[in-house]
């Protein structure tokens, strides 16, 4: 057996994968430190990584920053949950009833490419710039990954399994709940994971554009318009946003692998 075949047969362990990711993160931080310390970039605009991380840790003791963070997390969580509650049933409907799918496809394809950021001013004028503003935009942006992954998962359901259930007298709803939904669940979970990242981007972007109220985006906005700009604060806020995204993605990936081991086994992926 060749070395290449052995590497495919023995996937990296979780510890190895995490160590590689940590090494990559440390290498990136070291690069920022080197670029800033050597003057390749102006430290006023790109502080050293140690200064950024130090400021990020200091912000944890700041009650005002914690309020900003919790406000952003609330908008993110509500928007993502509402998007999932709306998108999964809608995806099941469109994926199961070709007539409805065909009738609504042009509307869906028209709405899907519209950038959510372009809707920020319009939504602000219609419903204001409070929590509802962020939640509405997060729901709109997060809806599409879940919707399309749900529909894609339904298309991959084994038709033989559905026909077997129908032959025993089960109706369309029973087939959907007993076969189609369980089979498409891994794809729905992937859609939720992708939507979680999109929701985080829209939450912070909306706060930055609005420039008022509370939220990490608002914190970054005011740090940016200060004279002089507080770059350490800006990058510390970005650090926490990025770290939260990494943690959420890792937790969702772990939950997927735990809940859908059979799916990953079928695809030959490590559990």
Automatic annotation (TrEMBL):
<feature type="transmembrane region" description="Helical">
    <location>
        <begin position="110"/>
        <end position="131"/>
    </location>
</feature>
<feature type="transmembrane region" description="Helical">
    <location>
        <begin position="137"/>
        <end position="154"/>
    </location>
</feature>
<feature type="domain" description="ABC transmembrane type-1">
    <location>
        <begin position="69"/>
        <end position="252"/>
    </location>
</feature>
<feature type="transmembrane region" description="Helical">
    <location>
        <begin position="208"/>
        <end position="227"/>
    </location>
</feature>
<dbReference type="Pfam" id="PF00528">
    <property type="entry name" value="BPD_transp_1"/>
</dbReference>
<keyword id="KW-0813">Transport</keyword>
<protein>
    <submittedName>
        <fullName>ABC transporter permease</fullName>
    </submittedName>
</protein>
<comment type="similarity">
    <text>Belongs to the binding-protein-dependent transport system permease family.</text>
</comment>
<dbReference type="InterPro" id="IPR000515">
    <property type="entry name" value="MetI-like"/>
</dbReference>
<keyword id="KW-0812">Transmembrane</keyword>
<keyword id="KW-1133">Transmembrane helix</keyword>
<keyword id="KW-1003">Cell membrane</keyword>
<keyword id="KW-0472">Membrane</keyword>
<dbReference type="InterPro" id="IPR035906">
    <property type="entry name" value="MetI-like_sf"/>
</dbReference>
<feature type="transmembrane region" description="Helical">
    <location>
        <begin position="73"/>
        <end position="98"/>
    </location>
</feature>
<feature type="transmembrane region" description="Helical">
    <location>
        <begin position="234"/>
        <end position="255"/>
    </location>
</feature>
<feature type="transmembrane region" description="Helical">
    <location>
        <begin position="175"/>
        <end position="202"/>
    </location>
</feature>
